[in-house]
Each structure stands twice: as C-alpha cells, then as structure tokens.
Amino acid sequence: MRSVEEHQRVVADLIAARRPVSAGLADAEGRVLASDVSAPLSLPVFDNSAMDGYAVRAEDVAGADANPVTLPVAEDIPAGRTDVLSLEPGTAHRIMTGAPLPAGATAVVPVEATDGGIETVEIRATAKPGQHVRRAGEDVTAGTTVLRAGQVVTPAALGLAAALGLGELAVLPRLRVLVMSTGSELVSAGTALAPGQIYESNAIMLAAAVREAGGEVVATPTSSDDVAQFSAVLDGYAGQADLIITSGGVSAGAYEVVKDAFGAGAVEFVKVAMQPGMPQGAGRIGGAAWPATSGLGCPIVTLPGNPVSALVSFEVFVRPALRAAMGLPHPQRPRRSAVLVDDLTSPKGKRQFRRGVYDPAAGTVTTYGPPASHHLRWLASANCLLEIAEDVTEMAAGEQVQLWDLS
User: Fold this and answer.
1) Which of 95-109, 257-271, 336-350 shows the lowest per-residue confidence on average (mean pLDDT)?
2) pTM above 0.85?
3) Fewest CB within a 10 Å sphere: which of 7, 12, 195, 241?
C-alpha cells in the first residue's frame, strides 16, 4: 500500500496556484497578496484635528487654566472644507474632527474645555504645541511598503488600501473546484426515495469543505454509475475548474464508474494505508474536452464514496494542498497532544483517523462513535481526529495521543 505521506505528496504536486490577478477591494478580501503594496500618498494626507474644538496658537491660550482667554472665532472648519485657511494671531477657528488645520495653528483645544461659542469663544485650558493635532504622514509616509506579498487581505488591510486610494490589489485567486458525486443510488433532497436509493450528501459536504478551506466551488453535479453519463456530466464543466474532486466509484467492485472512466492511465488508483479512506486516486485529465492551460491537464483527486472516508480523505490530502497552493496560512490543521480517556484498538499496518471530542481545558480526548466509514453522525459532532500510527494496534486510557484539531 501507499503511505499517507506519499499520497499527500502526490496530491500536493498536482495542485498549483493560479496566476495573480488584479481584484477590486471587495473581491480581494480573504485572498493572499501577490506583490508588495507601496503607499502612493502619506496618511494623514494633511495636518488635521483629532478633536472637535478650536484651532489656536498655543501662545494665545497660555495660562488659560487659571485665567480663561476669550478669542474671536474667525472661521468655522467642518471636515471636508477644501479651501486653504490661515489662523491670525489672537483668533480661533472652530474645527471639527478630521478637518484640515489652518496654517499658523499649533494646537486644538477640545470643545469641552471651552464655552462652545460661535462668534467668540472662552478658552478655559492651556494647550501645548501639537496638542490634538494629527500630523501629515505620521501614520504612513508616501513610498513606504505597507502590505507584503503573502499577506492575507484582512478587513484592516482593505481599510488601509482604501485610505490610500487604491481600488485594486494584486492577489492570488481562489482555486476553482468542481465537486462531483457518483452513484446510481443517489437522489437530491426533496425527492421521494425509491427502494435502494439514498440522498446525495458528499458533494454538499465536500463543497462546504472546499469553501471553508478558501477555495471556490464551480458546481456540485451528480452522476450515475454509467461511464458515458459520468463523462458527459464532467465534460459539461470543461475549462471551468482548476481542480476536480470526485467521490465514489474508486473501490474494487463492479460499477466503479470513476475507475472505469479513467482506468487507462489518466488517473492512478491506489490503496493508501489508512482507515477510513483506503481507496484513493489522483492524476490529470486532458484532451479536447478538458483543454490544459498548463499543458499538463486538469488535476483530479478521486475520493472514496463513504461519507466519513470522503471527508477524512479531504482533510488529509486535499485541504492542506489546496490552502498551500493559494498561499493561505496554516494549511495543516493544528496538531495537539492529549490524554486518551478511553481504550481503543486500531488495525495493524494502517493509520487510523478516529473521530474524537477534545477538551482543551482538561487536555483530554475521548473517542467518539464507531470507526466505520458510514457513521457520519459522529463526525458531525466531533471536534478532532485522533491520529493512530500504523504500528499501533491498541492504546489504553491515560496514554498520550496525537490529534488534529478541527474546531
């Protein structure tokens, strides 16, 4: 069997980044910067008031703490006033937060330290030079690198870009992923079940996992176990995806539609030494239906059909490779060590990923539900996966166990 690490490398080698694009600020959120960002201007752009109050010359209000000073109010300066003003000695300008400081003014007295007058104002506090004044460039100097390539575009980063007058950012685009379920037994929710039918869940689940990992879902089609239909559905999305993920049709039995469609060598089907998720496949598809922009073909990762196997396989193989290709931080789930609360067994020669409930406060973890790959209910309520090594067949309560934190 192929080891977990070997198949991780195979999948990681298939999934590559798209070329950088220029994206509007709203579309850049959550993506990774492809290049450094330099400030085209300084912030603040001009000297401005940090308070609602009165712009003054500091020497004109010296001693106002003990002896209030009355000054004529020569101008009213709301935020957004664009004409250039000068403050004459022995006068004050009423000024609002963010409004440009008039030439000659050296301080702002808060309105709370005055009588709030409009024609004249009584100043009741001394002001030091520079008090409540935001100086031009004290936050950002024009030409400074303010954001770095590889940085995730956060709300704060967007705010800075907007404040600098930037309408677009060069980012790594999200990878476009086609998620496809296979199985003649599958029907959509809202349809009455006939004998032998089940509701499709893998595509919905895996699409959510793709989005949570930072990718973009192209579509979530379903195909029967007929090779012609499978190929037709797949080809209907030709050229729209950077990665194809299928679930089902990769085991050793009959009617394995994915293996039948790609068994000639386009996709390599293997057994990986893990539980759940032993049957896996990965490769590239090309040809006229899937023109390869890279010349290599479109990557495809084929996952098993049991729902727990499908999602665990995504976590182990696809999620880290997908996030790494998009430059996103922390491609791997956080690894923890915890004290096992109960005994467990594990198959020899296979790495087991067991559902668990991790209590970070106590530093303990409890196995959760049976290990079989169809018990989706337990995975839905678990917050971690216990990772049991291939050479371990038994673990006793009280031992340290490694886990993947899914919370």
Assistant:
1) 257-271
2) yes
3) 195
C-alpha span between 293 and 291 (Å, rounded): 6
**407 burial via Cβ count (<10 Å: 0-12, 13-18, 19+):** exposed
Burial of 156 (0-12, 13-18, 19+ CB in 10 A): exposed
Name the token pair of 130: 């520079």
Of 382, 360, 359, give the one whose Cα is nearest residue 369.
382
pLDDT digits (tens, 9 = 90+) for 113-168: 999 999 999 999 999 999 999 999 999 999 999 999 999 999 999 999 999 999 99
Looking at the chain, the whole-number percentage of residues with pLDDT higher than 70 is: 97
Instruction: Please report, for residues 34, 173, 327, the alpha-carbon distance to residue 149 in angstroms, rounded to integers and kept in the order given.
Output: 5, 13, 10
DSSP state of 258: H
DSSP string, 182-225: E-TTEE-TTSPPPTT-EE--HHHHHHHHHHHTT-EEEE--EE-S
Burial of 139 (0-12, 13-18, 19+ CB in 10 A): middle
Per the structure block, which two tokens stand in for 147? Answer: 């954001």
3-state secondary structure of 324: helix
Do residues 297 and 286 make contact, with C-beta atoms less than 8 angstroms apart?
yes
Q: How far apart are CA 377 and CA 381, in angstroms?
A: 7
Give pLDDT tens digits for 153-211: 999 999 999 999 999 999 999 999 999 999 999 999 989 999 999 999 999 999 999 99
Q: Do residues 193 and 298 lie in contact, with contact meaning Cβ atoms separated by under 8 Å? A: no
What is the pLDDT, as a whole number, of residue 292?
47
Per-residue pLDDT tens for 265-293? 789 999 999 999 999 999 998 765 565 44
Q: Cα(39)–Cα(176) distance, rounded to whole angstroms?
A: 31
Q: What are the start-end ranges of the E strands in 31-143?
A: 32-33, 37-38, 48-49, 53-56, 69-77, 92-95, 107-110, 120-123, 133-134
Radius of gyration for the chain, computed over Cα atoms and rounded to the nearest angstrom: 32
